[in-house]
Specification:
This protein is α/β, with parallel strands linked by helices. The protein has 28 helices and 29 strands. It is globular. It catalyses: tRNA(Val) + L-valine + ATP = L-valyl-tRNA(Val) + AMP + diphosphate.
Length: 873
Amino acid sequence: MKETSLPTRIDPKEFEEKLYNEWLEKKYFHANEHSDKPPYSIVIPPPNVTGSLHMGHALNNTLQDILIRFHRMKGYEVLWLPGTDHAGIATQNVVEKMLAKEGISRHDLGREKFIERVWKWREESGGQIINQLKRLGASCDWDRERFTMDEGLSNAVRTVFVTLYKEGLIYRSNYIINWCPRCHTALSDLEVEHEDKEGALYYIYYPVEDSDEKLLIATTRPETMLGDTAVAVNPNDDRYKHLIGKYVILPIVGRRLPIIADEYVDMEFGTGALKVTPAHDPNDFELGKKYGLEEINVMDDSGIINENGGKFKGLDRFEARKRIVEELKELNLIEKIEKHEHSVGHCYRCKTVIEPRISMQWFVKIKPLAEKAIEAVEKGEIKIFPEMWTKTYFEWMYNIRDWCISRQIWWGHRIPAWYCDECGHINVDYKDPESCEKCGSKKLRQETDVLDTWFSSALWPFSTMGWPEKTKTLEKFYPTSCLVTGFDILFFWVARMIMMGLKFMNDVPFRHVYIHALVRDQYGQKMSKSKGNVIDPLIMIDKYGADAFRFTLAAFAAQGRDIKLAENRIEGYKNFVNKIWNASRFIMMNLDGSVDDIDFDALEMEDKWILENLAETGKNVEKYIKSYDFNEAANAIYQFFWHRLCDWYIEFIKHRIYNNVNKKNALAVARFVLEESLKILHPFMPFVTEFIYKNLTGNETITFGPYPEHEFNFKDDFDNIEKVIAFITNVRTVRGEYNIAPAKMIDIFVRCGDDFKNLINEKSEIIKKLAKIENISFTDSEIEKSAVQVEKDFTIYIPLEGIVDFEEEIKRLEKEKKSFEKDIKVYGKKLQNEEYLKKAPAHIIEKDKKKYEEAKIKLEEIEKSIERLKKLC
């Protein structure tokens, strides 16, 4: 045993980095695949290699680390497998911007040289987030760190692609896709962010051929009319039945467009007549296939009108819109233009408005893979927490569309397909072909597209463990135990991992999926640089230490509820860290270096009470961690340490320590409870608990616990101390209500039964000390001019004459009352002002509501106090 005093003040900077380096050096986080211990494993959601630690990462990795450290202490062989994602589009953008500063483009370098530059950037600057995760205290097995473009993972990606292709589940086809004119690549539906924007609805006349009649069309994108190949109406729409089978003439262009009938057309939207542009709208594309319509692409890769746009060739799509509308006005073919709010798709990387366009792309036929993934969740092989996300998962999976997996960029896994220039055959194999497998020609060209980044990350749970090789790591740790992730990638990543895991490992990739909420600012707004409300995790760690920051995130991580974070909350939990430090310091200062084990035969009532509390807290925290109720777990240990151990038990035993009354046992219990409390706290606060534990015990580390599992049978003593606490609290309540000076000693009278009388007598010294009581007397009758507190087991009378100047106290309260009445009037008026409620920011209104409600509660308390005092006058 080792007991050394702690420094007076805590400074996390003095021990956090030192402890972390020690953990790494001693390989505490390294998982042993040959171990006989039961496995527990998590694969980290790989952050982008371009990324730096933001609040989402901090929350996600803090919660994972709590699970990992807890299970390590519970005796599991724990693997937390880290790594980063190559982030195709994002990384290419970063390097292209660097090249632009040098006055060159990737095309000037050529593909090979450009890829070399990206790798060089990755080695020098990429992956800084890994070091930032270490500052957070993430106990990953860094020896196993992976990268989605490393050799092993690239082999896995190729194996999966070739297998799916040979089974007919990967195909190449001309299809309507989401195109980013800025990034020059296709995007999957999930990579398109939709925002409601105020645009316009243009009502355009299309003249009916050989007739004076005109068909009125409503569209939000007039520029796409250059590619119109039909007009569609609903066959049940009486307004247009006479036109079905006829033709309209496309304004400006002059093309004949058939008028077709299909029930897909919404009779209520716009005019009920729909322009059909198969090359520039996914729904029109489907109609085009159904009716054999021509597909006319009118834009190039950059959203510039091409040769199919006639006189508008060379114009940007938005400039073309403007010019087309002007010309339609001149031709008197615009009926009206209305303001129209609608959902507009943007590239998730560069925020450019996406353009649906026809393109030759590679796809995964997803429905056959989705069936088993749906079944796995239906059967409970995978459980999703909170359960509400299960419904969302099913909705998406049942309506899933084929996955466009090709991207027109250079950084990424190049698609392993070679085109034969002689016969046109596509060669796809596990090794690079030397000649065409069909005709034997050596004239082969490799596909220039790369795979969607999410394709490689879909294999993450098994590719990182060495698949397609049958490794010991896979055998030991797959399937993983839990995946912790944000709801925004439930489909990007989670669903695809489930599909790929079931396909290639014949088992689910994880047993549980815990989906955490967003971290917002204190007013519930999304954090963004433009709003200036971003809280930087690294600044918070520098300012308050990693432990306080981590504990704050855990304490607010309620299932299904976004976290409203303010810096003062982190500061509040820094106070908790200080409390832990000071309590530990007090106990350690009083240990004399020769602490005995607990003498269970000589335990006092309060000793048994704290031990019972400890056992209950350990069980509750374990239960809450296992059910992913992180906020409940954090609150349970907070309440125990701050209120039970510090506010009560340490205060209970001070007189024993100072007066040498059963002192050794008091300190033995205090020391034991402190040590076990540090273990319960460790998953949440790894640094401060390790530092204190090493100093307290002389042991090498707290990392492996064991996690406290205690069973005591001190129910009666527990209940008795609870009664003593209630008694002291009641006296303190009166002191507070009547503004009795903290140092003022008072006399009290108690009416109670014999059992409670015996309890008071037995614990009178503690009660008097903690409630500042001079004398305790027992009575069978009421005591006049007294404050009265009534509980089930007792009634307390506290005579106030000579202690409280009733008239002065009433005057003081009346003055206070006016102040709160004024607040109620001011804030009440503001909150009834409709103009103010319309214009004021939501967080200011929320602040005013809070002040209004607080003033009302305070006023009610003051009025009750005045009433009580008047009765005593």
